[in-house]
Amino acid sequence: MKQDLNRRQFLQASGALALSSSALGKLRLSAPKPPAGKTMVVLFLRGGADNLNMLVPYKDKDYHQARPTIAIQEDDGLVPLDDGFALHPGLAPLAPYYESKQFAPVLNVGSPHFTRSHFDAQDFMERAAPGLRNITSGWLNRYLAHTASADASEFRALAMQNLLPRSLRGDYPVLAVPSGLDRRRSGALDRFDEFYGEGEMAGEPSSAGQADSMEPQAETDEVVYSGQKTIQTLRRFQKIIAQGKNRVKDGTYPSSSFGRALSALGKVIHAGEGLEIAAVDYHGWDHHANQGGIQGRHTEMVTDYGQAVAAFCRDLGPRLNDVLILTMTEFGRTVRENGNTGTDHGRGGAMFLIGGGVRGGQIHGNWKGLKESILADGRDLPVLTDFRDVFSASLKQLFDFRAPKGFFPQYKPKKLRLW
Fold first, then answer.
1. Which residue from 411, 392, 399 is spatially nearest to 157, judged by alpha carbons?
2. Rounded-to-10 torsion of CA 351, 352, 357, 361
């Protein structure tokens, strides 16, 4: 019994409770297949990233007055994009992609729901259903389920972390890559061989080369079968990482876990394994205290993010036109800094879109400035673009996916000119 529990715990941790024909058979396989070679990489900055100190309204006097100690100044190394906004110095590596019109920031974007709770805001965003607690599937999983095909790659969807993000949870089988498997050598999978073994099970052919024809015969066999398939797929992932090469010089990617995750994704994309949806979480953006201006924890994280994403873009090279990098966060921060030289939970935030043919080189969103009369509750950037509009436009433009009725529960997305 304990062994079965551990088996299930492993499958839940890996996220790959399927990859089997029986699981895919439960999905509708009627939608047109997405265009081959397209990939969406969704980066979630968890904690509510302070976009005002990432894409800085450096000419706005209200910005400087609201942030007397943490505002980023022009002589701090800001990278002007136009006469109103500049990139944080840590995001300087992304400036060339703005100049080449491949980088499109979207401002004043977020959820229409009033919550400032991390947990609720993240749930609502990842399920694309603000305020609807009865929706349990993620928006990315719903897309995968609607466009499922029997011959889909087992690497069609990946989460580069121990647990699947809510956006990838649902009926469609998705693989989560436990920490450490992005390294060339890891014994993590060996610990689970005793649970699943390499021997035969009911309904399993004796030849390992015929694994694709395995059919589980009972609930216990289903668990064993899924476990064996999961380990098999993760070992193949390790092989791709060990043999793969990035198209940038060694050391270009930061050594952080975020940098390693993007480096691994680059290898999977170059390997041509049919990767369509990938997700990476970046935790720790809840800077209530000691956020700092040009120095501090926020700047360290912004710099890590900027260097890693820029390295990923260089690694992709011409493939960047077929890869959309979508960065989001559950909400923005207060315009005014607090008494602890930090910022508190806000409303309107920002999304960054890079690659995928996006209409870059310009600031998107309905920017109204920072006058107190404009701010939500007199303290936050207002939400003037619903995040679901960005999701819908991204799926449509990258995959030619027209969201059917109900895909975004109780909401019909508005058209955006992001492409």
1. 399
2. 110
Opening angle at CA 125, ends 123 and 129, nearest 5: 85
Q: What CA–CA distance (Å, rounded) separates 375 from 335?
A: 9
Tens-digit pLDDT profile for residues 391-416: 999 999 999 999 999 999 999 999 99
Residue at token pair 């508005």: 414
Is pLDDT of 273 > 60? yes
Nearest CA-CA partner of 396 in 377, 415, 375 = 415
pLDDT (average), residues 7-30:
52
Q: Does residue 387 contact residue 125 with C-beta atoms inside 8 Å?
A: yes
For residue 165, what are its two tokens? 């993000």
Summarize pLDDT for 366-387 with one digit per residue, the tens.
Answer: 999 999 999 999 999 999 999 9
Percent of the chain with pLDDT over 90: 73
| Average pLDDT rounded to a whole number, residues 120-127 | 98
- 287 with 50: CB under 8 angstroms? yes
**For the chain, domain boundaries:** 31-153+247-399
Please compute, for residue 57, the number of CA atoms within 13 A of its CA located in the half-sphere on the CB side. Answer: 22
Rounded Cα gap, residues 293 and 54, in angstroms: 11
CB-neighbour burial class of residue 131 (10 A; exposed 0-12, middle 13-18, buried 19+): middle
C-beta atoms surrounding 28 within 10 Å:
10
**Average pLDDT across the chain, whole number:** 87
The neighbouring-strand residues paired with 323 are: 39
For 46-81, the pLDDT digits (tens) are 999 999 999 999 999 999 999 999 999 999 999 999
Q: Which helix (H) or strand (E) holds 98?
A: helix 95-99
Name the percent of the chain in helix, strand, coil, to the closest 5: 35, 15, 50
Topology given in CATH for the domain delimited by 31-153+247-399: Alkaline Phosphatase, subunit A (3.40.720)
Kindly write down the DSSP assignment for every residue of 362-390, as one continuous string. Answer: S-BS------TTTSBTTTB----EEHHHH
The pair of structure tokens assigned to 315 is 């690694």
For residue 298, is pLDDT > 70?
A: yes
Type and span of the H or E element at 307: helix 297-316
Spatial distance between the Cα atoms of 308 and 323, rounded to a whole number of angstroms: 15
